[in-house]
Amino acid sequence: MPTRTTRHPITKHYRLATALFAVLALWLGAMPGASADSRAPAPRPPSVSPAPKPEPIAVRELPVPPTAPPGDAGACTSATGCVSAVTAGGFLPDGRTVTASFTYAGAPTAPDPRSMYRGNQLALIRTDGSTFPDGKPWKCVTCGVPAANQAGASGDFRYGQPFRDGRRVLAGTGVVDCSPYRLTDPRCTPAVTRVYPVRWNVTPDGSGPGGAVMGLKVHPDNVHVGWNKVIRPTAPGDGFDEIAYFGRLRFNPHPTSGTPLAPRYDIVKVTGLYSADPALNGHFFRVDPRDPTRLRYDQQGAVGEFKNFTGDGRSLIGIGNARSVNLDHFATSLTAGKSRRLDADPGYSDPATSSPDGTWTVAMDVRYRDRFHFMAGLPGVPPLVDMLPTGAAASAGYNIRMRRLFQPFLIDRYGDRGNYHGQQINACTTGPCSTLATGPGSTADSPFWAARADSYWSPDGTQVVYGQTYSSPADCGPPFDLAACPPSSEPGGRTSRLMLAHLTSREALRLPPVRPVSDSVPWGTPYHPGDPDPKRPHLPAGRYTLDGTSAGRATVDLVENAQSTGLTRISVSYKNYSDDGKTFLNGTESVENAGAPSSPVTFHTRLRISGEHTGTRTTSEPAGYTISPLSSLQGSYQPVGTMTTVLDGRVHAQPVSYS
Questions:
Q1: Could you count the other beta carbons within 10 Å of the beta carbon of residue 53?
Q2: Which residues, in sequence order, are bridge partners of residue 174?
Q3: Quick one: DSSP state of residue 392?
């Protein structure tokens, strides 16, 4: 296929997080938590750590099978199948092969042997230009696997995470296993491949109700996993919630109960990544035990929505608010519970993946585009109102209808500081970029192609693979962009592609395997099969004060719902409040809803900062700014009222409404 090479900088755009998880994640800040240990030296404070210079990065598109339209049986004439969509997966231990999810299309009907190339399947792609024995750079692993070899499996093979034995991959909700052969071995055929479902909520002997697991991430020790569970309302005053869990994978060859009654993996010794201590409310604030009228800021347990683990295996990556309405990633120690902020830009970031040594992060981020500063751009505002689901205000920022707006950013372990906001991997300014297509909008730095979750590091830390998706023409052009996007010029008009970034100046890491960590998470809550879903604690109603670290104070009023199961209103008044002694905050703000994350949220804001930075954040009055947290689920953004931030003379307005 022809290759297009570009070196010009990227224009501004892209990405959307998983719908419900993204909305919930924006308000599930912190809890009792964790430390940012890693195999690197102890970090220096960001203020004294020099920002890294932009490094050379070469980006190219990975080869995939020909394209065929979905639902057109027989349209594909390729002997190894055609695809309609592709999704990125992780590297095998050899560092030159990645997993991918192929959605096959156009296959002929049985008994044609090519009929096995249909639906969602796990595949491998060579990244070094080599091929498999059939001469192709790709290989389908699960195509043609007999039904008896995948009893109880869901058929979802997205987001492959290989184990370091090279024989197994956690993909979707199951483990693909080609033992005793490596997945790249020609002897790894459909006849010897097995797909084992993963279940949790089982007792140590394998009994219990069982339950499928979504969003699984393999811990670097290859023994443990993390995941999230969405909790739906069951009583008045309840709302949607999302709880993270941690547990041990155990192969169960002969289950005696639960489903399926076939070989499977059970998750045992489960811990909920939340605290049983009601004083720890999950949003970095707790009542001062020495004075019940005062609040303390305690940066612990920033889990919110669980995203991944650090490469060294000592911490998990979750999300929380260290500043008002500014959602960021945190590394939280599995043993100590202390949390370290990984990124700090006002732009929305989701998700983040850690380098094998835990010293770098690749974050899918919208920071290159001014869509979040209108609410998150005012510095020095503590996240007091974020004890309610303020993420509703962000629902317009990370997408335009179903158009993704994210791009991959490389960030060092000290995070955003000063003028350093990471390096966009596909900016194409420090190395060559190439794609398989040649038409308009096809370049690696095209604003019409947006990054998708997740990204994956090579074992030696020199490469990153990620997927992209192309915008629908209906979601481009005025009023969202200056230019409309042409149809995709990928082969067959395919709207997804896989990209490989090579960090060309880096020396390959040679790291020992991560040792198995403890099953116990001391700051978490042990889970037993059949336990009821937890109720996330919150601060009691009342009036509190929060002293600034350097000066001033905030007066905080909290109001609960009638069932005392959650907060419905938070009002804050600031007087010369400062956490750094440089920027001082005055004014008032309030947030209110019906006490559930699914309820519309209304902001009333009159804030002003002075000192090193000057600016304001205001809402239109008297009605304020109201937004539904379900907006992103519904593919619309129709706020009532406005919110505007002015920082150092620059005006940041909210995004254009859409439906």
A1: 8
A2: 171, 197
A3: G
Looking at this protein, which amino acid is placed at residue 348?
A: Y
pLDDT at position 239 is 62
352 closest CA partner among 360, 363, 343, 341? 363
Contact partners, residue 453, CB within 8 Å, separation at least 6: 17, 18, 159, 350, 351, 364
| pLDDT at 609 > cutoff 80 | yes
Mean pLDDT of 282-308: 87
Q: How confident is the model at residue 442 (pLDDT cuts 50, 70, 90)?
A: very high
The set of residues, in sequence order, having a beta carbon less than 8 Å from that of 306 and lying 6+ positions away, is: 215, 217, 226, 227, 228, 244, 245, 273, 316, 317, 318
Torsion of CA 45, 47, 48, 50, to 10 degrees: 110
Class of residue 492 by CB neighbours under 10 A (exposed 0-12, middle 13-18, buried 19+): middle
Closest CA to 281 of 297, 260, 264: 297
* Omega before 260 within 30 of 0, i.e. cis: yes
pTM of the model: 0.90
CA 408 to chain centre: 12
Output the six-digit token pair for 90: 């992780």
Query: At residue 392, does pLDDT exceed 80?
Result: no
Please, which residues have CB within 8 angstroms of residue 562's CB and are 6 or more apart in sequence?
236, 237
Phi, psi of 580 (to 5 degrees): -125, -5
Residue 208 CA to residue 383 CA, distance in Å, equals 41
| Angle in degrees, CA 623, 629, 632, rounded to 5 | 120
CA distances from 451 to 91, 364, 398, 509, 578 (A): 18, 7, 12, 26, 37
| pLDDT of 160 over the 60 cut | yes
Q: Is the peptide bond before 238 cis (omega within 30 degrees of 0)?
A: no
Non-local (6+) Cβ contacts of 23 within 8 A are: 240, 389, 391, 392, 395, 597, 629, 630, 632, 633
Cis peptide bond prior to 9, omega within 30° of 0: no
Name the one residue in this structure whose structure tokens are 């004439």. 77
Over residues 475-493, mean pLDDT: 86
Distance from C-alpha of 442 to C-alpha of 444, rounded to nearest angstrom: 7
